């Protein structure tokens, strides 16, 4: 699982490239699970990628952020990353 570090005041655009899993399939829908205490906004996706802007959070805390996609063929995949909030 990937881990990113961000300051409380930063906004990062983070996401996934699902192309290695899809092999000719495409993303039909995507949903994000954002824990309390951190903000996810402006989620976008295209046929192969999903992105979201992550902001806020509390210094020293870690947040697991997950994205679930459903493909045009009906397959479901989930990936997650960790965001560690630091005070820079």
Poorly predicted runs of 5 or more residues: none
Number of strands: 7
Number of helices: 1
> Which CATH architecture would you pick?
Sandwich
Which fold name is given in CATH as the topology?
Immunoglobulin-like
Number of domains: 1
Order of strands across the main sheet: 1-7-6-3
Question: Percent of residues in beta strands?
Answer: over 45%
The pLDDT mean sits at 97
Order of helices and strands: EEHEEEEE
Q: Write out the CATH superfamily name.
A: Immunoglobulins
Percent helix range? under 10%
Termini separation (Å)?
A: 23 Å
Description of the molecule:
The chain has a four-stranded mixed beta sheet, with no helix packed on it. A three-stranded antiparallel beta sheet has the order 2-5-4, with no helix packed on it. The protein is mainly beta and 88 residues long. Strand 4 (38-45) and strand 5 (49-56) form a beta hairpin. The protein has one helix at residues 19-22; strands at residues 2-7, 11-17, 27-33, 38-45, 49-56, 62-71, 76-86. The chain is elongated. The mean pLDDT is 97. It has one domain (2-86): Immunoglobulin-like (Sandwich).
List keywords for this structure.
88 residues, mainly beta, Immunoglobulin-like, four-stranded mixed sheet, three-stranded antiparallel sheet, 1 helix, 7 strands
